[in-house]
Amino acid sequence: MHESKPSIFGMSRNELIALCQQAGVKTVHAETLLAEIFRKGKTSLSDMTGLPRALQDWLQTHVDSSLPQLLARQRSGDGTCKMLLAMHDGREVESVLIPAAGRLTQCISTQVGCAIGCTFCLTATAGLVRHLSAAEMVMQIVSAQQFQQQRPRNLVLMGMGEPLHNYDQVARFLHIVTDPKGMAFSPNRVTLSTAGLVPAIRRMQQDALPCNLAVSLNATTDEVRDRIMPINRKYPIRMLMHTVREYIAQRGGKRVLIEYVLLAGINDTPADAQRLCALLDGLDCTVNLLPFNAHTGSAFARPTEDTVSAFRNILVQAGLVAVVRDSRGRDISAACGQLRTEISQRKQA
Fold first, then answer.
1. Residue 336 falls in the annotated catalytic set
2. pLDDT above 90 for 9
3. One of 36, 81, 92, 94 is an active-site residue; which one?
4. What count of other Cβ atoms lies within 10 Å of the Cβ of residue 130?
5. Cβ-proximal residues to 329 (8 Å cutoff; 6+ apart), any chain
6. Among residues 118, 277, 285, 336, which one is catalytic?
7. Confidence at residue 27, expressed as pLDDT on a 0 to 100 scale
8. pTM of the full predicted structure?
9. Contacts of 113 (CB under 8 A, 6+ apart)
10. What share of the chain has pLDDT > 90, as a percent?
11. Measured by CB atoms within 10 angstroms of the end CB, which terminus of the chain is less buried, N or C?
């Protein structure tokens, strides 16, 4: 993508209609563009059948349809595939494809780095470099289609970055991917994961963003959450959970996902499980328990399987829906930031 030209991947249906008008062709060709680019994943304008030559020539001159460079790709024994992509300015982001039971889920990055500073997250160690544009988020999906020859069924905004810290571009991305005449992802198959930016969650509910909400909780006391997720000092647990309950009520009882990374000896005790039950009492939610995916240099460790099982059993006995999501792609450094860090270290060696 060149800064002098707008990327076609970041354009809404109305903007594509405007392009047709500017090119002097019928606006009905915007529908063809939507299908060719956003559903079929084509990037070569000359390969887009059904477009007038005049429109093809105009687009070649006025818009950019190039994809990021694929710097590295790793495939796990469990089928997980991780891509490292270089954007137009050379900044690198990761995107992960996770296969399961006939469907493919893609983790989308929303920033280069992250400013939230969760102490167990490798991405946070680099700090925030910049936000990604909606076009750069869409490019991750199109790149995956090109490299994997398969379109993802589910999208999860929980790659590199805090999505709600980049609210405007993320909202634009969500409207592009859920446009029924464009990429046509069901909003029920798109999930946005946040560390808990309370004002942005409220804005989400006001704007009725077309996606599911996942909240990365990871602790049951402010003392622990302050330590592992500094954002808690500004938006403590009580405030966050009150906002989540408001979100559910105002979105018509829409179920939320509570994510809980289990860190050995930090937040994985029976007492933590009991406090989590109290925090979630009466909340329409599913709990994803995520045993920590250890990485080199981390001060945290992965709990034992027995510890994880005992934690989950307490939640289930309290009537909560709790699922253990084991880390996928552990043999290929599939945790957020690991592949990028690994490649960077090789360059410096």
1. yes
2. yes
3. 94
4. 13
5. 74, 76, 78, 80, 81, 82, 96, 98
6. 336
7. 94
8. 0.92
9. 123, 124, 126, 127, 128, 129, 130, 160, 161
10. 75
11. C
